[in-house]
Design brief:
Strand order of the largest sheet of chain B: 1-2
Distance between the termini of chain B: 30 Å
Largest sheet of chain A: 5 strands, mixed
Oligomer: heterodimer
Radius of gyration of chain B: 24 Å
Shape of chain B: globular
Number of helices of chain B: 11
Strand content of chain B: under 5%
Order of helices and strands of chain B: EHHHHHHHHHHEH
Number of strands of chain A: 12
Number of strands of chain B: 2
Largest interface: A-B, 79 and 87 residues
Order of helices and strands of chain A: HEEHHHEEHEEHEEHEEEE
Number of helices of chain A: 7
Helix content of chain B: 55-70%
Strand content of chain A: 15-25%
């Protein structure tokens, strides 16, 4: 065992080649090239190392400061940060990130691309995810859908019989994806939102629909109207339904009887149950979950 | 490259008796070094927010426990820890233990999602920077798998396993010889963790946009399967990072420093000895 052999314990580099020595055999494109050894003055090396350590150290400090800036207060408190670090800048920064993601989602959306459909054997259970209490069924008798922001300038009230007799029924077996991560496949039937838009055209400058359920309740059972913004491009998608039936039966209370929105290209939270009114507006309307920190476009 | 050799230390310009030159090799392009370290906060942010997102709808659930009301397997681990680990008996909410210690926290889905997207876009940008650094520095060739890698990786594995025993027995334990920048095990690790990064991004997109990118979700076996892939890919980073950090410290200062300054004196030393 000579010195040479011993030294290789710690040597994980390749055979060094001094720069002046040319490589003998021609290399293939994918072949590894030897690292070139160069001679440096110790002074220069010291200077460069000091500079790099300072720069990377500053980067580490910046990363720490950045983490302190964006992390939720609850997390920071748990880590022993007593001071309240919440700032309006943090909200602005995170909302900006969300806007970028929404813009990406909007760019990915195609009005002609259909979402996957499934067979009846692939139907799964679908949980009732009303975020508050499930409403009392008393609202169903006397239920009306109010349309406003129409080209006619009128407000129109439709009951479920009007809707079922005036419009043709479309069926689809599609997946509903929740923002929480779970999903469910169900067989839906109802009228196309697009057919409703054709029958009762919105005013010409309308770009958005505000879809509302006034019967929605909060967790303690108090009225908590649920409102949601939907861009008309998505409303016109041919798989966007105003569903009246699920799995061959009229919608149950759990799933938003008598009429719910089914918009499979959006997260479940846009699929408003027990819709009571649709209003067409020019400017993006308020959105229940966007006001609670979620994104507003929610295209999936 | 930003730091070209200053004119006064071109090769062969030194070797004056009072200040001998130091032989160094350039190991890591500065873009590779930056993206390497940026991965640390970005991946940490992705994992912490990711587990907070997982809380909202755990993949692994069982029938609801009548005593605790819990159905989440991950929360079970926290409940077990609170029951068995000294000092944790009085923890106020045992089902939250795991999320309070391994994530941003439970019950903050909206915030966790916003942070996850922010970090995910940074992670993709950082991946582009890394690949750019590999291409500009030519180091991508050192990461490509070879035909001999399987056998060589096993030899390295045997070396690492036997090393502590040999140390204890004060026996000599030779490092397998390699003529390349990385040994086969390193190469496999660095190559596969980069692939894992890419697949994490791909599965992430397939969960994020399961309708517009449904072909991507189908590639991973559908939406639900893609979630499982995305979850388990997280563990690849743990699997990588633990031995990675141990081995860097075991290997010595030069290796750690080279990821900051870019150069290593290892080859130079060996060159001097070889003379």
């Amino acid at each position: 065992m000579n010195n040479d052999e011993k030294e290789r314990h710690t040597f994980d580099g390749m055979e060094p080649v001094v720069k002046s020595v040319s490589v003998k055999k021609p290399q293939s494109f994918f072949g590894e090239r030897p690292l070139t050894a160069i001679e440096m003055a110790p002074r220069v090396l010291r200077y460069q190392s000091r500079r790099d350590f300072l720069v990377f150290g500053a980067g580490a400090l910046a990363a720490l400061a950045g983490a302190g800036f964006v992390l939720p207060q609850q997390t920071l408190s748990r880590m022993g940060m007593p001071r309240n670090m919440d700032s309006p800048g943090k909200e602005r920064f995170l909302n900006k990130a969300l806007r970028i993601d929404d813009d990406v989602a909007e760019a990915l959306y195609s009005g002609t691309r259909r979402v996957p459909t499934y067979t009846k054997s692939q139907i799964t259970s679908l949980k009732n995810n009303y975020n508050g209490a499930t409403p009392d069924p008393s609202y169903i008798t006397g239920w009306n859908l109010t349309l406003s922001g129409l080209a006619s300038g009128l407000s129109i009230s439709l009951d479920i019989r009007n809707l079922l007799t005036r419009f043709s029924v479309h069926e689809q077996i599609t997946r509903l994806v929740c923002v929480e991560g779970w999903s469910g496949i169900a067989w839906w039937a109802g009228l196309k939102f697009d057919d409703l838009l054709r029958a009762y055209p919105p005013m010409s400058q309308a770009k958005w629909a505000r879809v509302e359920s006034s019967v929605n309740l909060d967790a303690s059972g108090n009225p908590d109207p649920y409102f949601m913004s939907l861009d008309l491009a998505t409303a016109r998608h041919r798989q966007t339904l105003l569903a009246t039936h699920v799995n061959g039966q009229p919608l149950t209370l759990d799933h938003g009887a008598p009429l719910r929105l089914l918009v499979p290209v959006k997260l479940g939270l846009k699929n408003v149950k027990a819709i009571t009114s649709i209003t067409y507006v020019a400017e993006e309307p308020r959105d229940y979950w966007a006001e609670r920190g979620y994104s507003r476009y929610d295209g999936i | 490259m930003s730091q070209s050799t200053p004119p006064n230390c071109e090769p062969n310009s030194t070797s004056t008796p009072e200040q001998p030159g130091v032989l160094v090799v350039r190991k890591h392009h500065f873009l590779v070094r930056w993206s390497h370290w940026l991965n640390l906060p970005i991946l940490l942010g992705l994992i912490l927010s990711g587990i907070s997102i997982y809380w909202a709808s755990p993949i692994y659930q069982h029938r609801q426990d009548p005593n605790t009301g819990n159905a989440d397997v991950a929360a079970d681990i926290g409940i077990w820890i609170c029951a068995h680990v000294p000092g944790q008996h009085h923890y106020s909410s045992p089902p939250d233990w795991i999320y309070n210690h391994m994530s941003l926290g439970p019950g903050m889905l909206a915030l966790a999602l916003r942070l996850h997207w922010s970090c995910a876009y940074l992670f993709m940008l950082n991946g582009i920077v890394y690949v750019a650094g590999l291409v500009m520095g030519g180091a991508w060739r050192s990461l490509l798998p070879r035909r001999t890698d399987l056998l060589d990786a096993l030899r390295m594995f045997r070396y690492y396993l036997g090393f502590p025993l040999a140390k204890l027995a004060r026996r000599q334990w030779l490092h397998p010889r390699f003529n390349t920048k990385y040994n086969a095990l390193q190469r496999a690790a660095y190559f596969s963790v980069s692939v894992a990064g890419f697949v994490s991004v791909a599965t992430g997109w397939s969960i994020h946009k399961p309708m517009q990118l449904h072909w991507l979700a189908e590639l991973f076996g559908g939406y639900n399967a893609a979630r499982v892939w995305h979850f388990w890919l997280m563990w690849v980073y743990f699997l990588f990072v633990v031995p990675h950090v141990i081995l860097v410290f075991a290997d010595g200062w030069d290796t750690l420093r080279s990821m900051i300054v870019g150069w290593s004196t290892r080859a130079a030393r060996s060159e001097v000895i070889a003379k």
